Structure formats: structure tokens, C-alpha cells
Amino acid sequence: MQQQHRQPELVEGSLPVFVFPTELIFYADEQTSHKQVLTLYNPYEFALKFKVLCTAPNKYTVVDATGAVKPQCCVDIVIRHRDVRACHYGVYDKFRLQVSEQSQRKALGRKEVTATLRPSASQEPPSPRPQDEERKVKEQFADSEFFEQTAFQTVSRPVAGGPSLLTVLLGLVCMAALMLPTLGEQESTVPVYLHLSVNKKLVAAYVLGLLTMVILRT
Question: Whole-model pTM?
């Protein structure tokens, strides 16, 4: 009797995660660098779901902060820096990519990617020794917390306040014009000088139609 092949149980946090690049550098004076792409690879025989966390989620917009990667495939995660200010120059932030199996909630693996904003590519600081750079990053993130990164934040639109007073008054004038007698009518108690020609009523009807469209769109 053949035994079924079962996938070995994975320990939480033990699965290697493959992400490129491992560092994101944004330049304030280069608009094109404000958008970076992280590529998450899945070399395994099973599908993975992922989640993107960040130490400073308010500074970034992440497209598809959660998702899935098919076996032996990859997915691109777009990250945009949306708070490009001088006070953020040289500050290190971190993104954490957590992966798990589709049917499980525990994180099988994680990978952290550093992100920093610099004033200009032409003003690159001298490269420090790897030991000094690593110590600086570790000191900054000693007590850091990771927060869920919203996938996409829509820009709020002001609520329309309805048609303006001028629009309403103009609409009432047009309606009153259409209710007046047409020029030439004999049996009318309305004074003759208030009788309107057909052309004037057509203009009033046309303007009233335009105002109605404007009101419906607000």
C-alpha cells in the first residue's frame, strides 16, 4: 500500500523569503524615484499569501499590500513615497513582508526591507563602513513597531453642497417665463407687456434644461 506524500510541517518563521531589492532609496529631487517596486518570489511548490507591514505607514502608499503568489511565480508590489519633506532626509523606515500558506494564518517567514529618503542622487553621502551602517539601522529599529500598511488610500472628495442660489433663482425665472401667456393670446388676464413670444419661451425652455442637468450632476 503506497503512502501518501505529505508536505513536512513548517515551523513558524522558518521559511526563507526571497525579495528584491532589499533596500529602497527615494530621492526628493527625482520624481520617478518616488515610486519603487518590490518583487516577491515564490520558488516553492505551494502557493503563498503575503502581507506588507511598515514602521511608518503614513509616509507610504502600497499597492496590493496583501495578496497571493502562485507556486514558482513572482509578484510586484508598488510602493510610493507620499511625504517627501526635508525632515525625513536620512531617516530609515522598514517594510516587513510576511508570508504564510493559503490555509494558515501563522507567518511561515518574513523579510525586512529598509527604506530611506535622500535629497538628491548627486549628493550621495560617502558610503560608511558596513558595520557602522548596520549598527545605525539596528539602533534606530531597536524598539520599532510594524503596522499594517493600507493597500491604497483614496483621496477624499468634498461633499457637494447642492446647486447654488443663483442657479435656483434662474431656474425659477425660466419656469415663470414658460407659464406666461404667449404673444397673441386674446383671452388672458395677464397684461400684454408680460406676453412672451415663442422664441423667448424656447430660450427659457433651453436654459431650464441646462440648469436641470447642472443640478442633477451636483
Answer: 0.57
CA distance 54 to 95: 4
Answer positive or negative: Cα dihedral of 12, 13, 14, 19.
positive
Nearest to 95 by CA among 128, 43, 50: 50
User: Any idea where the domains of the chain sit in the sequence?
Assistant: 18-120, 165-178+197-217
- The domain made up of 18-120 has a fold known as Immunoglobulin-like (2.60.40)
Please tell me the total number of residues recorded for the chain in this structure.
Answer: 218
Query: Cell for 216?
Result: 442633477
Q: Is the pLDDT of residue 20 over 90?
A: yes
Q: Alpha-carbon torsion 93, 57, 67, 64, what sign?
A: negative
Q: What residue type is assigned to position 90 of the chain?
A: G
Q: How would you list the strands of the sheet with 35-42, edge to edge?
A: 18-20, 35-42, 73-81, 60-63
Residue 170 contacts residue 211 (beta carbons within 8 Å): yes
Helix (H, G, I), strand (E, B) or coil at 129: coil
Which phi and psi (to 5°) does residue 164 adopt? -75, 165
Answer whether 138's CB lies under 8 Å from 130's CB.
no
pLDDT at 5: 45
Measured between alpha carbons, how far is 41 from 70 in angstroms, rounded to an integer? Answer: 9
Q: How far apart are CA 73 and CA 41, in angstroms?
A: 6
Q: Residue 170 to residues 67, 164, 196: CA-CA distances in angstroms?
A: 53, 10, 17
**Percent of the chain at pLDDT above 90?**
43
